[in-house]
Amino acid sequence: MKIIDSHVHVFPDALEPQAIRALTVPGRGAKIPGTLAAARARMQRLDVSSGWTIPVATKAAQVATINNFAIAQDRRYFVPFGAIHPDVEDAYALLSTYKKLGMPGFKMHFDYQGVSPTDPRMEPIYDAAMDFGLICYFHAGDDVGPHTRYGSPEVFATVLDSYPGIKMVLAHLGGWRMWDDVEEFLVGRDVLFDTAYTADEMPTDQLFRIILDHGTDKVLFGTDSPWTDLEKEIRFFKECDELSDPDKEALFHGNAENLLGVV
User: Fold this and answer.
1) Is residue 197 pLDDT above 70, yes or no?
2) At 18, which CATH number?
């Protein structure tokens, strides 16, 4: 079965040790180095065809450097998303260039970036996503680092109301450790979830209830690499009885390909 990992974090080699130290907390450590080479080696060993790399710029000044790193990634193995920060100058104009540069969308983590999804500074970002067909890939719910002030399922539901048809992926099955709120505010909405960092973090019955009630055509397989065991994540979903074989095909690659427009 073809496998696409839609949630991969990588860092430039020179910055990787510092980044991993900064993001490591008790109970969560990297399973592999956070480099492109390490990610590619593990993908190759486990027959994963591609990984979506999704960066976060905690400061506006980081955006250009992060995007240059993304643009240089080998497209045979990686689908690089860009970074954006609400404080960059003319975010709309900058985002208008992303698809031409080979970046299908951008990633944001509102708690690391200190902004609410409903902040007026987000309007040009959403407008650009709508006008240029960009994928908005958002951390959703709580975090092991900063506990959420901004990215709740209820807030994302408000954004969906304001921007119908926007291409949005909410990581961690719509809201990490806020899954009751996911069921209340997001399940069934026109938004995609990924499975990153959920398999061992929530009741299995709730995990599959959310996937099935939301629609197996709207969930992407993602791991939050390098923080999870890719082999274990693949096995968990491949061997589950709750999903049919067509559901698993959609989860592991079909939905990701559809989102990117791959026929």
Assistant:
1) yes
2) 3.20.20.140
